[in-house]
User: What shape does this take?
Amino acid sequence: MSAFSAVRIPFPAVVAARSTGEKPSSPFLCSPAAAPGIHSSPLRSPRLGRPPLAVSSDVLSSQKPLGSNSSPSYQAVISRDEALELYEDMVLGRVFEDMCAQMYYRGKMFGFVHLYNGQEAVSTGFIKLLETRDSVVSTYRDHVHAISKGVPARAVMAELFGKATGCCRGQGGSMHMFSEPHNLLGGFAFIGEGIPVATGAAFSSKYRHEVLKEARPDGLDVTVAFFGDGTCNNGQFFECLNMAELWKLPIVFVVENNLWAIGMSHLRATSDPEIWKKGPAFGMPGVHVDGMDVLKVREVAMEAIARARNGEGPTLVECETYRFRGHSLADPDELRKADEKSHYAARDPIVSLKKYILEKNLASESELKAIEKKIDDIIEEAVEFADSSPHPPRSQLLENVFADPKGFGIGPDGKYRCEDPKFTEGTAQV
Assistant: This one.
């Protein structure tokens, strides 16, 4: 047994939910002038008539609490294979992040590490609908996005360990996951900086399709840009929404609204906390969805991705979710109230999906346990692989810094100058 054996952190017990009896409606809420091919409805608050959350008592009392604690009412029916794929991906993400916490506190990872626990329904709900050719742009909370996109868990873990076998050869670390073969275009440490990259990727898809005439019969390559609620007050967000709608780019902007930007409550930081409304302001559909419910997220994602692939333009999707841990592993998480955290813990997206699978007889308890056992083995192997992998060579420090490092990093003989003992001579005096 490895010293880094996976220790399963049990999911909360399934909590029975209340039904509101709401009739299903199209998830998209947009202006009457919205693009054809989607369902239009009057611009309104999607939260009206929903029961309040147990939010912290010190949030702005004048703001309507966000979210819903009601039973889902699905328009789409998923197959057994689809349900098991979603369950496996979500559990893989959760167990991976739990192991990251253990490895961080054992000194195997360094720097800031931001975990995704609680938000798995968003990553799985969108990314598992994408094709390999489609692109994903992430944030500093990017491990699970990478895994959902197909980057092997061992490559992500090795990157977190700073090893040469990581998906970025140990040079990216926690906040900068990247994989060209999987079209994962990077995690970004500064909020908002990934949105222009995603918009550029979507523009590239449109350009190849319309100008270079590299049209595919199955539509455009789609880009999904993930970012948080705190990003939605930044200039890049507004500029890119404008460009994306102006050029009808094949992109989906996904707001992972976990209600907190580090230690700032979303309700305190935004004049209108309903982020989805900013989509119709630019002429694109905006939708709010329960980000703790993978089937609801998946239903919205299907339509948004189809619109993008068919050339109908961008969509803004606000997924209201919650992180079960602090902002980072260095955060003691003392600002959020206990009642708020316990409220969302009772709405664990993995527990909810498991309950749905069992109620619909899509799989048995033993089949789900077999999936969990398989994932425990994957994570343990990933840790052993990362721990036994070599560190990057010193010469790698000068790679990917300059387009042409000759004259600086590479000497006349073609070798890296840092390998020359005289290269750093005299730097102590400097």
In short: The first helix runs from residue 80 to 105. The beta strands are 135-137, 223-228, 251-257, 260-261, 264-265, 286-290, 315-320. Residues 1-74 have pLDDT under 50 and may be disordered.
